[in-house]
Amino acid sequence: MYLGLSIENSVINAALLNDGGDFVWQDSHSLDHDIMSNLLEICGALVVNATKAHPDLSESIAVSAQGGFVGQPSPPDGLKCLAGADLRANLQASLGRSVALASPGQALSLYESRFGAAKDSAVACALYLDNHVFGGVTFGQKLWRGANGIVGAWGHTPLAWPVPHELDERDCWCGRSGCLDCFLSLGGLETEYQNITQTRLDIKAIAVAADANDLVASSVLQVLDDRIGRTTAMIINMFDPDVIILGGRLAGLDRLYQNVPRKWPGYLLVERNETKLQKANQDTFTLAKGIACLAIDPAI
After folding, report:
1. How far apart are the first and last CA of the chain?
2. What is the pTM (predicted TM-score) of this model?
3. How far apart are the C-alpha atoms of 205 and 152, rounded to whole Å?
4. pLDDT tens for each residue of 206-225
5. Please, what are the domains in the chain?
């Protein structure tokens, strides 16, 4: 049995994967306090519950998180207890188990490569578009992590093919400017709308306004289509994947799957493109299930 834990700010989700490739247990626990001791306590409780349900739990577990990676900055609007922390070391000391750590984008990639839209793909890329932007790459059902474990960190690469002034005053929390995280995250989209209207709406409200023929909301979403189009075209030129998977709350916009591929011809090196754009599984436990797949990897 292989356990995956997904730390998602206010909640920690857990899923168990058996040797036959089936998910046999899942659980969730709210994070009451933004302090490391509380986070470790909840992770420990979930491990205990998983062990009670299935005593043959592997000694190695895997965890998905948006921060807590050694030598990497953590989002300022995420869990404060992860800023500057060595999450893996803390978990290993607290749980007494070997722990593998990966980003939400990498967890999403693993799930989709084994159970989702990329399960028959030789090469697949994922973009997780939510509070922040993460990504992942799989070859078959194997996650490509890279020498530094940061494959898919597209949130902190520059927006591709920017138009004049598009990158102006786009300072990112990572300390650089013009990062994709400034444009393709929930906060980036909401700020785009607010800068024009002086009113802040969330993604659902912006989408509803666009459907009601609000010109500003429609324009903001059209710009989003184009920016995701340029980003995914860059990914196609780099990796030539069979499929690109979009996950996270921004990926819930159905318009993307028709509009984004229409942007590709102006940026791709090939005249005839075979890469597909697909929506990720929207299950609450998708990331926990995906990161459970990493616990199988003997490299951890």
Report:
1. 15
2. 0.93
3. 29
4. 999 999 999 999 999 999 99
5. 2-107+284-294 (3.30.420.40), 119-279 (3.30.420.40)
* CA gap 142, 238 in Å, rounded: 18
Tens digits of per-residue pLDDT, 162-201?
998 888 888 998 888 899 999 999 999 999 999 999 999 9
For residue 105, give both structure tokens: 């984008």
Q: Please tell me what DSSP assigns to residue 142.
A: E
Interatomic CA distance for residues 14 and 286, integer angstroms: 10
Residue 248's identity, in one-letter code, is G
Please give the Cα distance from 55 to 117 (Å, whole number). 32
Question: Rounded to an integer, what distance in angstroms lies between the CA atom of residue 54 and that of residue 96?
Answer: 18
The residue type at 211 = D
Token pair of 114 as six digits: 């084994």
What values do phi and psi take at 23, rounded to 5? -90, 120
Q: How many CB atoms lie within 10 A of CB 73?
A: 14
Question: How far apart (Å, rounded) are the C-alpha atoms in residues 246 and 228?
Answer: 10
